[in-house]
Amino acid sequence: MERQIGIIGYGVYLPEKRMTAKQISEATGGVWTAEAVKEKLGIVEKVIPGDADGAQEMSARAAQAALKQGNVDPKDIDVILDMTEEWKEYPLTTTATYVQGKIGASNAWGIDLQNRCCTFCSALKIAKDMLLADEYINTVLITGGYRNCDLVDFGDKNLSMLYNLGAGGAAAILKKDHGENVVLGSYIMADGSLAHDAGVPVGGIERPVIHENAGEWMKLRLMDAEHMKVRLNEVSVSNWYRCIDESLRRSGGLTRKDIGYLAILHFKRSQHLAMIKELGLTEDQTVYLENYGHVGQIDQMLSLTLGLEQGKVKDGTLVNMIAAGIGYVWASTCIRWGKG
After folding, report:
1. Which of 148, 186, 208, 295 is at a distance of 20 to 30 A from 324, taking alpha carbons?
2. 190 contacts 327 by C-beta, under 8 angstroms
3. Domains of the chain: total
4. Under a CB-based contact definition with an 8 Å cutoff, are residues 261 and 317 in contact?
5. What whole-number distance in Å separates Cα of residue 291 and Cα of residue 38?
6. Distance (Å, rounded) from C-alpha 187 to C-alpha 262?
7. Which residues have a Cβ under 8 Å from the Cβ of 26 and sit 6 or more positions away?
8. Other CB atoms closer than 10 Å to residue 253's CB: what's the count?
9. Rounded Cα distance, 247 and 186, in Å
10. Which residue range is the domain that position 280 belongs to?
11. Which residues contact 9 (CB under 8 A, 6 or more apart)?
12. What percentage of the chain exceeds 70 in pLDDT?
C-alpha cells in the first residue's frame, strides 16, 4: 500500500489594495463597461499589490502563514519548491533560497519551479513524488508569490482574458506518512503549439530592450492572438475534463460524482457556470473568485482556504483542484481533506 502524503499546514497572503470593476472599466477607456466587467469577465474587484508586496516577499509571507497554521518548525523542512512568477524583485535570483532565509528553514534546500498558472498543481505532484522516492525527504514546503497584474495593458483589447490578473501568495506544507489532507492523483497535459502565443515579447534574447521598444518592456501580449483563440477553442475545455477525469481515476478509481469541492481558478463567469454544470456540481461546492480575480497559481490554495472558511470543505471532502497556464498546460489534482 502506497505511503500517504498529507498537507500539515497551509497559508495565503493577500495584499490590502483592490481594483474595482469601475476602475477596470476606466482603465480600458470605457471599452468595457463596469457592468460587463462584473457580469461577463466576472470581476467585482481584484487584489492588487501595495508597494511592499514584492512577489518573493509575498511567497515568504505565505510560507510564514503556513508554518503558523500548521504549527511547523521551519527547521523540519527538507525542501522548498517555490512557484513564484518570473516577475519578481530581481531577475535571476532564486526565490526558494530567499524564502529559506526569511523563514529560518536552515536545513532545507530549494528550487524554483515555473509552469505558469499550473505551477501549484504541478508542484503538488512533484512534491508527492519526491517524498515517496527519497527516504531522506520527509517534509516539503510549496510556496509562491504572484503579481503579474503589473504587466497588463488595459488598452490592449486582445488582453481582456487577462484583465483579471491579481496579486497574492500561497503555501502548503506536505509531510510523509501524514494521513490527513492526503494528496491523491494528479494529471497534467500540455500543448506546445501554444508555447509562444502569449507572453512578454520585449526584454528577452529575441527582442532585448532598446530605446525604441522600451515602452513595451514587461508588458504581456498575445503574440499570436488568432492561433491562440482558435486552438484553445479546439482543445481547452476537453483537455480540462480529461485532466479532471484522469486525476480522479488515478485517485483510486474515483469519478465526477465523488467530487465534493472544486478548487477552481478564476475565469469568465459563463465558463465557470458551464463547468460546474457539466461536472454535476452546485455553486455551493466551489467559490467563484469574483472578489479576488485570477491570482495565477495561487488560485487553488486561495479557493481551498475560502472553502474551508465558508464550511464548504469538511472532514472527508474530496477536493478537486484544476488549473491552466499559458504555454499551454492544463492540470488537475485531488486531495482528500481531513481524516477521510
Report:
1. 208
2. yes
3. 2
4. yes
5. 10
6. 15
7. none
8. 9
9. 5
10. 184-336
11. 66, 67, 68, 69, 70, 71, 72, 171, 172, 173
12. 99
